[in-house]
Amino acid sequence: MARDRGECSLPKGHEVSEQGRLESLSEWFTLGRLLSADGFFCSQGLSQDEGDDDSGTDHNAGDSPGTSLQRAERVGDSTLPDVFQTNHLLFYERFKAYQDYMLGDCKTSEVKAFVSDYLEKVVEPCDWQAVWSTEVFDVLVEVMDVHYSELKARVELVVPLRCEARGCELSEEAMRDLLEATQHTVPLHELHVVYDESGDFDQTALAVEHLRFFYKHIWRKWDEEDEDDDFDYFVRCVEPRLRLHYDVLEDRVPAGLVAEYHALLTRCAQNFQEFSNLRNDLGSDSDSELDNVSMVEGLRLCEQMEVLKRKLRIIENPLLRYVLGYKVNSGQQACRAKGLRPTGSRVVHVVSSSMTVAQLTSLMSDKLCPDFSGDEFELQFHSDPLEAVHSCYQGDVVIVCPGHYLVSGSIRIPDSVEVEGFGLTDEVVIEKTGKGDTFVESTAANAKISNLKFIQHDAIEGILCVRQGKLEMENCVLQCETTGVIVRTSAQLSMNMCDLYGSKGAGVEIYPGSVCCLVGNGIHHCKEGVLIKDFADELDTMPRITMVNNVIHNNEGYGVILVKPADKSSQQGLLGACDELKVSEVPKLVAHVGEESDQSKPGTNQTEVPLIVVEETPVEVHYATTPELMEGNDAIKQELVATSAKKSRRRRASMQELGLTQVDDNLLSQEMFVCIQGNQFKRNGKGGFGTFQY
């Protein structure tokens, strides 16, 4: 018989006051609202009040007759009974179970004790059947006793034997021998509770599922090695990892980032295993030379572990995941460039679902005959713009005729081609209907897109992503639904006379080491207008930016925002950063528009050095206000100049530490090329310009 349960009391240390719980949920709701606009908040998040009934986590479900859980039916002629369906729980259900019942506010060193205490209160101690599931077999067993502190159960085979083996034959005698070898104890998380309509074993099935999910997706072997044991394990580790898991399930994280995360987990697990083996082999009081070498190797592994864990935490944190992104180019998903066509010819690809004689005549007289009448050009017709672009070789041209084209895949441009619309921009529309990392992705050395309207749906990484090479966009409309334009490291984007709106993230994201030229664009009704990223790594150079005559308006946050690492100088704001900038260094960093550089004068070094170009007003060494309160073009230029100067000094100091006492300024002239003038900032929620420090 199942024991009577009633109200399930919380284990010692799990009690959470109603006021504290409401405050915690209020903070969680606030973060959720901030992140949901960026596409990182799980749609099954805290969408219900805590008092709402949620099947699967209501620990008073035992008071109502009958089970509230679903049955997981087996496919085919299986001899095994059905089990409870518990692996499809919502984010909120798991979140509530871990926070309120299983873990509470425990520290890392207390996790196992809290988990065993929770299991002891809700898991039936004996007399229930389960399917013991491993990679090799599934077998029906009966639980005779549960060892809560060890997270194991003592089981016996159900006779006659009901078993399904994978790739081998297992007899009843073999299974008995296996149980004898394990002393009839098996890990509790390998048990799946047999379905029972009475509802007496609902909480047992749910508790085992929470345990199984926790040790498969949340817990890391190296967590207990963390020296900082004073933090709340749920807040620091469980919540971000749980959120990431559901973000991945709902296709809210780029596939490249998911692959990188799993690769980091694998490397971290390997390093931890090597470190553990090395530590176990070391003698406690040995001073041998071999042990000394092992200790050095152990320190190296520790340093590698810390680097890997820091990268994992950045990906797990939804806010840092958004503002920092991932710095790899993810080129493995891009199509490989084909180069020139073997025959040496060039093809004009005409895209049209249907065409009248008048339209064909207009196309011939206005476009094809004037521009492509040479013998080297061939003509091909397509009904799908995706097919036309993917058929291109280097030097080809794609002309999209008026129409509304629906595409389910991503448009990838690996070769230097031109894609242009023939007609008014609003008449040549390409709309994405399926999910994917990006809508338009360019890795070409020199490509151009013009006179087209793109409508984005469910693209995780942006409506347009320039991963490498150079892309020129002219007279395009970009209607975003999730995220906007992304310019990756080492990529170049020239965007002229375009209209971009609707991004739930930034309209344009500019990564370190990139080149971005924005002239005459409208960027509006996004979460942020333009987001400029600066990483802490000294090798990440600042981007080269030109912003002229853009209208950035009606964005939820800032018109332009700079994301940069916080350090001792930046903690005191921009004033402290500028105090470090010597007055004698300002002329080296700033050249005025229209003035002749000293390097172009006779008798000077002719090596070209990128310059920071600003308007005729010199940069002030001290600012009267913080950058968050300053508006417009001047504020952006001053902050970017100061940030670039600080990074240059750090690189110079690093090279001097390597023994390069006489550092050539030409080698370090990786500064930001800034030309920011004539931009208009109107009705942005937080102002024209701001900074975010991480």
TrEMBL record:
Q: Which domain of life is it from?
A: Eukaryota
Which keywords describe this protein according to UniProt? Cytoplasm, Cytoskeleton
A GO CC annotation recorded here is: spindle
PANTHER family, per the entry: SHC SH2 DOMAIN-BINDING PROTEIN 1, SHC SH2-DOMAIN BINDING PROTEIN 1-RELATED
The main location is cytoplasm
Q: Using the UniProt annotation, give all residue ranges assigned to the region (Disordered).
A: 48-71
Q: Could you tell me which InterPro entries the record lists for this protein?
A: Beta_helix, Pectin_lyas_fold, Pectin_lyase_fold/virulence, SHCBP-like_N, SHCBP1-like
SUPFAM superfamilies the UniProt entry points to: Pectin lyase-like
Q: What name appears for this protein in its UniProt entry? A: SHC binding and spindle associated 1
Name the gene that codes for it: SHCBP1
A single Gene Ontology biological process assigned to it is:
fibroblast growth factor receptor signaling pathway
Organism of origin: Scleropages formosus (Asian bonytongue)
Q: Pinpoint the SHC SH2 domain residues.
A: 93-321
Compartmental location: Cytoplasm, Cytoskeleton, Spindle
Where does the record place the Right handed beta helix domain?
445-563
Q: Does the keyword Cytoplasm apply?
A: yes
Q: What is the lineage of its organism?
A: Eukaryota, Metazoa, Chordata, Craniata, Vertebrata
